[in-house]
Amino acid sequence: MGSASVEYCNAEEGVILGVDGGATSTICVCLPFLPFSDHRQLPDPLPVLGRASAGCSNHNSVGEDKAREALEQVIAEALSRAGKNYSAVLAVCLGVSGVNNSSDQERVLNWMRDKFPGHVKIYVHNDAVAALASGTMGKLHGCVLIAGTGCIACGFTEDGREARAAGAGPVLGDWGSGYGIASRALTAVVKAHDGRGPKTRLTDCLLESLGLSSPDGIIRWTYADPSWARIAALVPSVISCAEAGDQVADEILSDAVKELALSVRAVVQRLHLAGEDGNDSFPVVMVGGVLEANKTWDIGKEVTDSILKAYPKACPIRPKVEPAIGAALFAWNTMKKETEVNGYR
């Protein structure tokens, strides 16, 4: 840790990178290093020097080569747009979906060690960390619910314990995710077509969205490219059918709400975030396209209401900054703690 003090002394032109790597897109932001002693409160708005985006970086979805390529691309582009190079980086936090254990972390760390100088602090976590930090301004405490292409609930206590629920991908049951909602809608159309399920407005709506003339074409469309994001993109059609009164679509969304709320409750219970009596206050950060407000069928509001019914003092938060900035703030906060522990001021 001794070399860190040298770097901090030369940190005036240094930058911190935050990466949010999801199943649909990967974002990197470049922030100026904010001296610990001079900033008791972070500036609002935060100064973003550079920002870049690329495709999916979840290795489970696109493979290791494409995942690494996406991460390296956004980092290089964000630095270029900020007018900086790799030597200016003091720390980088990568919150990447699909990073679920130590071997996943080590894989991404090895990719990054090839790109950055040895002094750079590199933190690799699941994208839930970036999402939570976007609502807590870099602090790792509370619960985060991500519901986009995939879904996961993840919680952290102030003493470092953590727990997660869902986040195991579409095959293993992320039914509250965009993929889960859309895949159930596609299944409902197929079942209605062959007589195993009730007729549904989803049939005409999805056929129109996909440019198909018959439900028979759905099978070919689905397996031609079963990427998670491609299927999850159909969620707005499911919501519009539910808002129009379709019972099948309504049931699909209601089940998704139950799954998402259940994931949060599982994390809260395992970590005792609400205390022994369930009445302690704790943040619940809500992130992802599935949770964004709609006209009448508001999944995010329904999930929030369910959480508050179980934990009245929970504090739902819709972040004001994006998860990539949350990742950068997490890196800044972690560096600050490490410097304090090691006596560097």
UniProtKB/TrEMBL annotation:
Its EC number is 2.7.1.59. GO terms for molecular function: N-acetylglucosamine kinase activity. Keywords: Kinase, Transferase. Residues 17-331 form the ATPase BadF/BadG/BcrA/BcrD type domain. It is an enzyme of class 2 (transferase). PANTHER family: N-ACETYL-D-GLUCOSAMINE KINASE. This is N-acetyl-D-glucosamine kinase. The lineage of its organism: Eukaryota, Viridiplantae, Streptophyta, Embryophyta, Tracheophyta.
